Amino acid sequence: MFTKKEMVIFMNKHESDILELLLKDSKLTQRQISERTHLSLGLVNKTIKSLKQKGYLSINNRITNKLINLAAKTSPKSAVILAAGSGMRMVPINVETSKGILRFKGEVLIERLITQLHEAGISDIVVIVGFMKEKYEYLIDKFNVQLIVNSKYSEKNNLYSVKLSENKLANCYIIPCDLYFKENPFSKVEFSSWYMVSDCKTDESSYRINRKYELVKSKKGNRMIGLCYLTSQDAKMIRERIDDLCSDSAYDQSFWEKALESNSKLCILAKEISDNDVIEINTYEQLCTADSKSDHLNNQAIDIICKTLKIAPEDIHDINTLKKGMTNRSFIFTAKGSRCIMRIPG
After folding, report:
1. What kind and span of H or E run contains 181?
2. Are 67 and 56 within 8 A, CB to CB?
3. Does the pLDDT of residue 6 top 80, yes or no?
4. What 8-state DSSP symbol labels residue 211?
5. Domains 4-72 and 75-280 share a fold
6. For the chain, what is the total number of helices (H) and then of strands (E)?
């Protein structure tokens, strides 16, 4: 199990946020820093004093060689995009399209993520593929990414996908392929490991942010976004944990975040984002709500349902995959109060 002492935290979140701003513009005043970070002027003053004591800032608030050396040691070098899953919750769209290459608001989800990584200076990018893996091959020529095939995507969860890429995890972003960020979430500078959550509380999450920006166990937690950053020092310990979990078949269906769990909390700090700034496309209905003009809503299975039952697409709700001997191409749904099954031969 991880302990707090095992994880390397060079500075707290307030210090990190302020230093990232000063690295971009060393002439910012404390009032300007307060406005951009939404921290009180008193807390900004206190934090800057702490950074000077640690040797990261000079007397006149200029960055020091110690800070430059730290940034070189901890800043991003690579990224791993998880795109192997079959997107079972995306039925019936997953019959025709892997969710990583969904076109959302005019952009392909995974292409947008790769472009945002490039804008942050990150070109060493690995995409873990499995389901419809051939659909991703064009990315090799278009973006010079590396594809790693997870041949066990239907047997194991994304913990195994991360294991396949573990030699890339040092100073690395780990990214689900189905995220759409309104603003670029990646940076040329990172000082500590973090796991991203939103400010929205939900019963589906069991971790909430406390005042120390730790993610602690809770009955109702912050929505977990899935984006994570690991420094090289922390990644070494996470890789060991991943290896241990993957050697036990009891964890075959575990999400990779299992490797972050330690003593009723996650072993890295939280990075919070506004829930309005990120969209996760997990289901057909989420896509309908977020992008009603999406080409993917013109789906053959939906067309058949509408023609057969003489209903409109907006009359279809609560779509869920059927398991137990059926492929994930068959699903159950509600149409005008009735529960129906759509069977699609595999």
Report:
1. strand 179-181
2. yes
3. no
4. T
5. no
6. 10, 18
Domain locations in the chain as residue ranges:
4-72, 75-280, 299-342
Single-letter code of the amino acid located at 346: G
- Quote helix, strand, coil % in the chain, to nearest 5: 40, 25, 35
pTM comes to 0.85
pLDDT tens figures, 203-262? 999 999 998 899 999 999 999 999 999 999 999 999 999 999 999 999 999 999 999 998
CATH class of 4-72: mainly alpha
CB 194 within 8 A of CB 249: no
Output the CA angle 124-100-171, nearest 5 degrees: 30
User: What is the tens place of the pLDDT at every residue in 278-292?
Assistant: 998 877 777 777 776
Q: Which two tokens stand for residue 239?
A: 């890789």
CATH of domain 75-280: 3.90.550.10
Q: How far is CA 238 from CA 163, 210, 301, in A?
A: 10, 22, 42
Could you tell me which of 271, 272, 192 has the C-alpha nearest to residue 231?
192
